Amino acid sequence: MVARLIDEDPEGAYGYSKVALRLASRVAAVREAGGFAAYANQKYAEALAEFRAARRMTGGVELWPLMADCERGLGRPEKALDMAGAPEVQKLDKAGQVEMRLVAAGARRDMGQLDAAIVTLQSPELASNSVQPWTARLRYAYADALLAAGRQGEAREWFAKAVEADKDGSTDASDRLAEMDGVEFVDAFEGDEDEGDEREARGEADEDRDA
């Protein structure tokens, strides 16, 4: 239920995770699910505690980037950067290493180090033309960092590249690109609703006159 609800109803997922933790707190998967649910609700201290517990039970490093991001959420970007340089990062798979790079860049931005954040994201994965599950988010983060640094031309280029890789709409890169190009989206139904309101108002006025 946590996995089913966490994207659309994070509060509901959190409620289920608390029940599961009461029933089976010694199961690593339950502690991990509790961490994800707390993380989705920005309860970073609780999420970090659950992720640490799950890691102690399994001995794995898969949760390392999430633990580092929890440190960011708790206002400790320096700790997140320390974790980015820890030996555990070398044990992560490619997706985990990219995620760790994203967290480290975010920590640099938290500290006001925009140029360092940009450099952190520059990697073979960013330069690659092949599209992987992490490609859109990596390109998006790079574009956003460039824009924050005032490098609008480069930012637009990378937002466009993020759009190319974002087949499932995991980012709002297309909206950001349109915003940079000055494109405004108009609700197609808004005009119809306004016209309907006007017709209704005219009808009521006619009824009042007839009365």
UniProtKB/TrEMBL annotation:
Domain of life where this protein originates: Bacteria
Regions of compositional bias (Acidic residues) in chain numbering: 186-198
Alphabetized SUPFAM superfamilies for the sequence: TPR-like
Region (Disordered): 186-211
The protein's name: Tetratricopeptide repeat protein
Protein species of origin: Streptomyces osmaniensis
Taxonomic lineage: Bacteria, Bacillati, Actinomycetota, Actinomycetes, Kitasatosporales
